[in-house]
Amino acid sequence: MAGRTHLVTGSASGIGRATRELLESRGDRVIGVDVHDADLVRDLSDPEHRAGLRADVAALAPDGLDAVHAVAGVNLPGPLTARVNYFGAVATLRELRPLLAKSPAPAAVAVASFATLMPPDEPLLAALRAEDEPGAVAAAEALADRGQGVLVYPTSKRALAEWVRERSVTPEWAGAGIPLNAVAPGVIRTPMTAELLATPESRDALFQQVPAPLNGAAEPAAVAGLLAWLTSAENRHVTGQVIFSDSGAEATLRGPHIFG
Ligand SMILES: NC(=O)c1ccc[n+]([C@@H]2O[C@H](COP(=O)([O-])OP(=O)(O)OC[C@H]3O[C@@H](n4cnc5c(N)ncnc54)[C@H](O)[C@@H]3O)[C@@H](O)[C@H]2O)c1
After folding, report:
1. Ligand 1 — pocket residues by CB below 6 A?
2. Closest CA to 159 of 87, 213, 220, 215
């Protein structure tokens, strides 16, 4: 189906930008949302910007959307990471879902992370599961104060992946014919990982944590291709999945015995 209209958050850089480029190269239209260089310059950490998102997007796409990609994220050791990665992504999906109603083949996807598998901080995870933003901010601040701010990122991604799985099979999503999935990238060459990949020592440390036996670190286009398929008209039956696009990290660390 040609000429689909996609909404992509985080469209100014890395995976979001690669997704925009790929979709546009295929003749689709992309409305990008980001804090800079976007069709809609919006801050997804800000509840007011999130609340206005549906009206803002509807003004640019009066006939609605075919697909929503919640890609924007940050990896900082504090509350901003919970605000953007969880509350920003959930608001993107929830606020824009009604705009998918007119599409003959709607779809949505969120970008989680391989870090979904890392141990979360339980108080923060509980606040995110409850969609309690003040509670989550307080828990993330407490982690940062204890020097454990690095736990905010994996916890935000775990909660996002859980949200996708839980919602995917509800009347609002599956019942409305909308596949809803998450992609969990491993190590992708973007500004987010540039420092970690900069020296042999930091690279080795990263690949100890996130092994990449299949071709090492990936280019953002690799994830874009998966996002493009998951949100294409071809995908009518894959939903509720957290798909690891991680060069083999998940299979290496979890092994074969994950079923049951
Ligand atoms: N790079 C990796 O190895 C990797 C691995 C796993 C998951 N991810 C996830 O992939 C997604 C994209 O990351 P990337 O690697 O392309 O990083 P990136 O830094 O290149 O791009 C992130 C984009 O999100 C935007 N953004 C950040 N805060 C925002 C806000 N408050 N409102 C709106 N936009 C905002 C940024 O401006 C930027 O354009 C993120 O969710 C990230 O957590 C990346």
Report:
1. 9-10, 12-16, 34-35, 43-45, 71-75, 84, 88, 111, 113-114, 185, 187-188, 190-193, 220
2. 87
Q: How many Cα atoms occupy the beta-carbon half-sphere of 215 within 13 Å?
A: 9
Mean pLDDT of the chain: 97
Question: pLDDT, tens digit, for every residue of 139-152?
Answer: 999 999 999 999 99
Residue 12 alpha carbon to ligand 1 centre in Å = 9
- Specify the CATH number for the domain of residue 35: 3.40.50.720
Give the count of domains, the chain: 1
What separation in Å is there between the alpha carbon of 158 and the centre of ligand 1?
Answer: 16
33 is a domain residue? yes
Range of the domain at 81: 5-246
Q: How confident is the model at residue 251 (pLDDT cuts 50, 70, 90)?
A: very high
What would the pLDDT profile of 233-244 be if each residue is shown by its tens digit? 999 999 999 999
Residue 79 belongs to some domain of the structure: yes
**In terms of DSSP bridges, do strands 67-70 and 5-9 run parallel, antiparallel, or are they unpaired?**
parallel
Q: Which is the catalytic residue, given 86, 87, 114, 153?
A: 153
